[in-house]
Amino acid sequence: MNELRFYLNRLRSYGGMRLYAQLAAMVALGLFDGIGIYMLAPMLGLLGLIGDGAGGTGSLPFAGETLAALRELPANLALPVLLAAYVLIMTLQSLLQRAQSIRGTRLQQGFIRHLRLTLYASLMRSDWIFFLRRRRSDFHHLLTSELARVSQATYLFLQLASSVAFTVIQIGIAFWLSAKLTAVVLVSGAAIAVVMRRKIRRAKEVGNRTSELSQQYYAGLTDHFNGIKDIKSNRLEDSYLGWFRGLTGRMEANFIAFARLQATTSSLYKISSAALIALFVYLAVEALHVGAGELLLIVVLFARLWPRFAQIQSNAEQIGSAIPAFRSLRELERECADARESGADETGARAEGLDVKAGIECRHVYFKYGGDADAEYALRDVCLRIPAGKTTAIVGKSGAGKSTLVDLLMGLLEPERGSVLIDGLPVTGERRLALRHAVSYVAQEPFLFHESIRDNLLAVRPDAREAELWEALRFSASEEFVRRLPEGLDTVVGDRGVRLSGGERQRLVLARAILRKPSILVLDEATSALDTDNEARIQEAIDRLKGKMTIIVIAHRLSTIRGADQVVVIEQGEAIVREDGRVSALDGTSAEGVVEWPAGAR
Ligand SMILES: Nc1ncnc2c1ncn2[C@@H]1O[C@H](COP(=O)(O)OP(=O)(O)OP(=O)(O)O)[C@@H](O)[C@H]1O
After folding, report:
1. Where does the ABC transmembrane type-1 domain start and stop, copy by copy (predicted)?
2. Which terminus of the chain faces fewer neighbouring Cβ atoms within 10 Å, N or C?
């Protein structure tokens, strides 16, 4: 319930006066409705269906006076005047209802957008380690399915508030008409509400299962479509179909359980309302000797009110079932707040990129991924210096810690002990973000957005001119193949660029990296998917960048590190500098060539 209160407070601070205006409109709607019903009394009196004295309009506040005023009018005008007043009140009520429903939707949608934006922005500002520890599919799940449930529950809460306001007003009117009869109905209603509370608890349980199942659904789908090639090539379709069948079966059963719960409550309400009306009429006539006018109005009031009780119960059950979604969303927001990158700017203003003058240095850097004391260190006591304007190659066996080192050098990860310094100053807070503005990173698995090549390039530098785009493409040996594409720069590359070959994607990502004119260029096996020809061309281009920027290359191939000014070998989390300055084994395979290790590089 704390979660619901938290989001209601958020709704209050988001909606402000609009929310209060909305609630006021709900109260007014209840009043209009009550007046509409109350007008039945003088109408029936005028038609002679109920008497004027006690037990008729005489026992109803204002009804007798209204009837007397109407009788003052010429006989043929009284009924049309009363009916016109009734139509006017109902028209006003409908117009108010219309405005209230549009405003309600506007408020609800605005609030959801506000939640979406806040969550998306907090995710974007969370640090890298946060993303390493969470499943990506959980973010999809929370930003789509869970947020939709929160959205629906917020809307239902407004509906609930409206039903409660309506009910309170109508009960007030009923009390005014007959306190005794209303008390009988309310005592019975309270007894039913106590019984129905169990149903709300049950709805919460079903809601928990809904959250779990839909999380599994999203996670599974994301995994399977990411690994669809493995599934197809290893003929695993049937086993995944089996998983899908099982999970969707449980989802279906869960949904039916909720529908059953709702249908049961609704029928219980109907049965109890019939029993109550019977008891009510019996008591009214036999025990309380209530007059026909009073009885008629109260029956009409409660006949309209009873479905509201049922609606309040149904809304409460649905809100109860959405509580787990509120909880997951709140938890994610808390985790994002804890993982917020220091120096992340609320306004999204871009920090100036750092210009590395002397170099980057690691001083006794230790890093481990797990938070536990006994988790293994991925890097231990790493000391090294990456001189500015030079090319540094990082080599080592798979799992040695090369990517971890590069992530630390780019400011994506923070050392557990020791420090990373740029030009002698530690990389912390805003300097970490500024460092990342200065870095262009080309990953081992090149990533392209499902947009045109032009848009993919402009994403990193929106002001780049056409000539600069082609220059970057030429640099990465992509010009030729892009010119051959039917729509050239405007060709849309498929989902994650799958319509291009691995090598073509790598070259486009390289062009994008260069277009940014970074101060530090990081290439993580960036030429691994290229043939010898293209690799040689890119190698030459990278060689031409020497002196213009600091280049860090993670490499397995000897050809990649041949042109490096310095080579860092990572072995089981330690950076090893061989005294003879020569590297002779890469990734477990004996390399034939050796790379000179400049003196004093450490
Ligand atoms: N997200 C993570 N969570 C936990 N451990 C991790 C994570 N990423 C890497 N590691 C561990 O840290 C160590 C170093 O991994 P890293 O990815 O830096 O190696 P690498 O040299 O880049 O390997 P490769 O050449 O295969 O990419 C490995 O033991 C790896 O299992």
Report:
1. 23-321
2. N
Residue range(s) defining the domain that contains residue 265? 2-17+102-338
Local structure of 347: helix, strand or coil:
coil
Centroid of ligand 1 to alpha carbon of 561 (angstroms) = 21
What pLDDT score was predicted for residue 497?
53
Structural domain total, the chain: 2
Binding site membership of 369 for ligand 1 (Cβ less than 6 Å): yes
Name the least confident of 34-38, 271-275, 519-523: 34-38
Summarize pLDDT for 329-357 with one digit per residue, the tens. 999 999 999 988 876 555 444 556 677 88
Are residues 128 and 262 located together in one domain of the fold? yes
CA-nearest residue for atom 5, ligand 1, is 369
| CA 413 / ligand 1 centre spacing (Å) | 13
Each residue's pLDDT tens digit, 237-246: 888 889 999 9
Backbone φ, ψ for residue 133 (5° rounding)? -95, -10
CA distance 226 to 65: 76
pLDDT at 256: 92
pTM greater than the 0.80 cutoff = no
What confidence tens digit (pLDDT) does each residue in 205-222 have? 888 898 889 889 988 888
Compute the distance between CA of residue 553 and CA of residue 595 in angstroms, rounded to an integer.
14
Question: How would DSSP label each residue in 257-292?
Answer: HHHHHHHHHHHHHHHHHHHHHHHHHHIIIIIS---H
Please work out whether the CB of residue 380 comes within 6 Å of at least one atom of ligand 1: no
With respect to residue 244, please indicate whether it lies within any of the assigned structural domains: yes
Do residues 316 and 374 share a domain? no
